[in-house]
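Practice record 12: protein with adenosine-5'-diphosphate.
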Amino acid sequence: MAASMAAQVGKSLRGAAARYVLLDKSKSVRINPQRWLNLQEYQSKKLMQSSGVAVQRFFVADTATDALEAAKRLKAKEIVLKAQILAGGRGKGVFTSGLKGGVHLTKDPAAVGQLAKQMLGFNLTTKQTPKEGVKVNTVMVAEALDISRETYFAILMDRACNGPVMVGSPQGGVDIEEVAASSPEKIFKEVIDIFQGVTDEQALCMAANLGFRGSLERQAADQIKKLYDLFLKVDATQVEVNPLGETPEGQVVCFDAKINFDDNAEFRQKEIFAMDNTSEGDPIETEAAKYDLKYIGLDGNIACFVNGAGLAMATCDIIDLHGGKPANFLDLGGGVQESQVYQAFKLLTADPKVEAILVNIFGGIVNCAIIANGITKACRELGLKVPLVVRLEGTNVQEAQRILNESGLPITAASDLDDAARKAVASITRK
Ligand code: ADP
Ligand code: MG
């Protein structure tokens, strides 16, 4: 359990698919269809600073000239230049400019300008990004410190424990996923009582498990408590520090930072949500979020229009079973309006990969007639050019069938999910 969770934590859950998170791979697929706000490392570090967490001095730059200036201003013995993208694994990443490594250490401020030139405006590909990588618009220029040991530490909301959990490993750094897979005994987990918070005893125990000794143990425990204060203060779902390192001079420092936030807390975390940088996300996904729709892009050619994450996964599986491949899925959620159905169709058909659309809606809270009206309106106004297979079930389904039948549109009705998937796959094969 700890291992699979820590592996998840190690992956930092940055990126699109991470918004449908598998919380525990050992159990059946559990999905959390929530859109979590992502911040860049430098933004997370600013929040950490304000909670008294130890991070090094840094500046942020979006041109090579500014990066060079920042490096000079730092007056540090050594400088670290870090590409800012919402994905981890940057240390071992590669840029489209040919430069290797999204994190570079140098003693020469002049080199910072040269390196920044090969980062800014180029895509960086890491283990956690799509193949084509993510464009780097910002770099962080920070004071580098010698690191004598790298540990891993995170606090996250864990459904299995109904509350926050601390996860740590004395072997942190860039290969935490491997540690979690090959040496699960090196991953330590501690459940936090939400009413009590992290006790001194728990913080010291985690610090010791992370391998901090002597005065470093107290320092690490203090950092752990401050990180928990931050976790609560900002309504985080996850605070991850990898590495939480120690220096030869005897300091405990957070060298990397990753915070996820609970979207339900947006109303009381307005300043943080105002920092949201959606430019890095999938443009269709960002557009979908505007209408409160959840969109996940996949590689196939059948668009899936569903309600509920469970039904989405089932739909994808059954398409697969019948030899097809889903192009995406768009989750309508409950309480849906006709205008959202229209927007949803617009988004689905905007994807050139889509060769057929499968609608699979189970009307509980959702009224099928609203869906049917939205579908017919969208088909007429958007001039639908691909086959459309519809399976509706539940609330007001008879009325919905009547609307679809009387529309005169070329819509294929399906009796159940199996039938729908078969017909959607066949509609493409027939072409
Ligand atoms: P990522 O997790 O995306 O690879 P990190 O910020 O963890 O990026 O950086 C990768 C590695 O670079 C760290 O594990 C650490 O060894 C080194 N590093 C990062 N920041 C510093 C720093 N300020 N001083 C010295 N080394 C650093
Ligand atoms: Mg890291």
